[in-house]
Amino acid sequence: MIAADRKHAVDRMVELISQSRRAVAFTGAGISTECGIPDFRSPGGLWTKTFPIPLGEFLASREMRNEAWRRKFAMEPAFRAARPGRGHRALARLIQRGKLSAIITQNIDNLHQESGVPQEKLIELHGNGSYATCLDCAARYELDWVRERFEAAGGVAPDCPKCQGPVKAATISFGQAMPEEAMRRAEAETRAADLFLSIGSSLVVWPAAGFPAMAKQNGARLVVLNREPTDFDGMADLVSRDDIGDVLEPFLA
Ligand code: NAD
Ligand code: ZN
To answer: In 63, 96, 187, 251, which residue has its Cα 20 to 30 A from 120's Cα atom?
Structure first.
């Protein structure tokens, strides 16, 4: 059912959350747009300008690795300046109140952590862009470490000093295997939930987009909070197309 207005959406959310014994939030780029990080699929979003570089292309040539890091560093000021928004803070509060058992996120911006959500309550399906790792030996490198070498070499991406493997932002690219532990935890949380809140996701990136339907098929109630329609609106118990920050702000108290 599509909420008629914001008050209707908030009232119904309050009701669903109070009736729930175990709720899970599932977040996408839309929760971070008010923090200054553009999403992919809103009109004029990043997607419409540059398609992300798939893993195969990243591995295939040094030039693509250089290009990937050029793009990463171009986006970096927006990521660094971003602070948790009302949506992040409301979800952190719901975790604190024992109302949410976990947040499953597709985001890579580290803003759920920064809003105070403990790592054991957070499941990152697409990794984290606030640091880098070697794809061969998994050694961790900070972005500043990469940037110093990238700039000193005139825009050439550095390799891992330990094993010469390629160093990539610690995000999951298209063509890259999903993190097994995160997928396993996300599935367990989804199956245990009686309320599933999908917030700010176009629900088109698979396999992540499978979780709302999995929850619904398992008997949970489903809420879709997203400005644009999604393929899962028809099965949702509540759909709100209102602004995420505005709808979640009442839960900050
Ligand atoms: P998406 O860009 O496909 O969809 C975002 C959705 O949020 C859109 O449908 C848009 O209508 C909605 N939205 C944006 N701002 C909103 C607001 N204020 N209120 C209500 N709705 C709003 O994002 P996705 O589904 O998360 O998939 C994109 C992929 O790109 C993910 O895998 C994610 O890892 C990655 N990504 C992450 C970030 C981030 O970490 N902040 C940013 C861009 C992309
Ligand atoms: Zn290495």
So the answer is: 251
Neighbours of ion ligand 2 (CB under 5 A): 134, 136-137, 139, 160, 162-163, 165
**Whose atoms come closest to the Cα of 162: which ligand?**
2
Q: Give residue for tokens 């540059």.
A: 50
Same domain, 188 and 247: yes
**pTM passes above 0.85:** yes
**Mind listing the pLDDT tens digit of every residue in the chain (253 residues)?**
888 899 999 999 999 999 999 999 999 999 999 999 999 888 777 666 677 899 999 999 999 999 999 999 998 999 999 999 999 999 999 999 999 999 999 999 999 999 999 999 999 999 999 999 999 999 999 999 999 999 999 999 999 999 999 999 999 999 999 999 999 999 999 999 999 999 999 999 999 999 999 999 999 999 999 999 999 999 999 999 999 999 999 999 8
Q: Give the Å distance between the CA of 162 and the centre of ligand 2.
A: 5
Atom in ligand 1 nearest the alpha carbon of residue 226: 21
Distance CA 209, CA 186 (A): 12
Domain membership of residue 233 as a residue range: 1-37+83-125+178-253
What sign does the CA torsion over 77, 78, 82, 88 have? negative
45 lies in the same domain as 154: yes
E strands, 70-166, are: 100-105, 122-124, 127-134, 140-142
